[in-house]
TrEMBL record:
Name under which the protein is recorded: Aminoglycoside phosphotransferase domain-containing protein
Ranges where the Aminoglycoside phosphotransferase domain occurs: 79-281
InterPro entries: Aminoglycoside_PTrfase (IPR002575), Kinase-like_dom_sf (IPR011009)
Cited Pfam families: APH
Domain of life: Bacteria
């Protein structure tokens, strides 16, 4: 079981070995608007902001936003990557777009993030025009060389993002919500039953250890506090590998960015998805990474316990409007996180 040890430290027993997760659901919302689906006035506003008529579109094929996301070719020979969303696609998506606009103004210039060229918000439709980047998403399952590039990008982000920009929300606030996942799960008996069934071979362990996880997860909130800029949603579908000979790794989709996170938070949060996408053992990847140097093992356990609860609880909720595929993805993350948690 997992529980508080001396001085609030966490300890694990019953470390049953189980097979790593290597099959992942597609990181895609399952639905996406096309240019012709946008209202006429929205298309006109995009063309006005872009400075030319739109002559071509290439839709994004990854990511969970149900709104519009496409690389647009313009009549003047230039390109712009455009996001457009309204509450009709998903009631929460416009606010996420607004958060991304706010974050863009705060990111240090050295961060490899596409520049926000323009934006617009009429109270219903939120529009973003972003610098197009020449690159592609990493192959799945992960190739070792591409995973190394992505994890190196986390090292670079920590270097240029410490200290974090003061204008962002503190990670502690988001982590308090994430770490309460086990509490939300435990409050609904049918959700507990669904989770025990959904996590497969981890169900018996979860049943025996749920009370201890409820005690452990809140320790992940103070354990997340540091001085570093946190992307907050670092996954393969939010990474673009620049085309050779350019070795840059572009980090995209920043609405969840926070300040004052522990330097290894993004690394830990992404490794369940890396494991489920065939990238390797998260334990080995974590402790071999420079961001984890000197990390307190009890703090790492506490944060992982909190994040695992978020994934498992979310996985057994109804899918949000316009994003039918996200629950399967969160379940796969939760199973991979449970597998790691039992070994850590």
């Amino acid at each position: 079981m997992i529980g508080p040890g001396k001085g609030g430290a966490l300890s694990f027993i019953d470390l049953a070995q189980s097979a790593p997760v290597t099959t992942a659901p597609l990181a895609f919302s399952g639905s996406r608007l096309h240019w012709a689906d946008l209202p006429r006035e929205v298309r006109s506003r995009i063309a006005e902001l872009a400075g030319a008529d739109v002559v071509s579109e290439t839709s994004a094929t990854t990511g969970f936003s149900p709104g519009y996301a496409a690389l647009l070719g313009l009549g003047n020979g230039t390109q712009v990557f455009v996001k457009a969303v309204s509450p009709e696609q998903n009631p929460d998506s416009p606010e996420l777009a607004r958060q991304e606009i706010a974050v863009a103004a705060q990111l240090p210039p050295a961060v490899n993030a596409p520049h926000l060229w323009w934006h617009d918000d009429d109270g219903t439709w939120v529009l973003l025009g972003l610098q197009p980047v020449d690159g592609r998403a990493p192959e799945q399952p992960w190739r070792p060389d591409e995973l190394a590039r992505a994890l190196d990008a986390l090292r670079d982000l920590a270097e240029v993002g410490t200290p974090a920009p003061a204008g962002l929300k503190p990670l502690e606030e988001d982590m308090a919500y994430l770490a309460a996942g086990w509490e939300r799960l435990d409050a609904v008996g049918s959700d507990v039953d669904a989770a025990l069934a959904a996590v497969g071979e981890h169900g018996d362990w979860l049943r025996r250890n749920l009370a201890a996880l409820l005690d452990a997860a809140p320790h992940g909130v103070p354990a997340s506090v540091g001085r570093t800029l946190v992307h907050g949603d670092f996954r393969a579908d939010n990474v673009m590998l620049a085309a050779p000979p350019d070795t840059r790794v572009w980090l995209i989709d920043w609405p969840h960015a926070c300040r004052d996170g522990v330097v290894w938070w993004d690394l830990l949060a992404t490794l369940p998805s890396v494991a489920m996408q065939g990238g390797g053992n998260p334990e080995e990847l974590f402790w071999s990474h420079p961001n984890a140097r000197g990390a307190d093992r009890d703090a790492v356990r506490a944060v992982l316990a909190g994040l695992t609860g978020y994934f498992v609880h979310a996985a057994v909720q109804p899918p949000p409007p316009g994003i039918p595929n996200v629950r399967a993805f969160q379940l796969a993350q939760g199973v991979a996180a449970l597998d790691w948690l039992r070994r850590l």
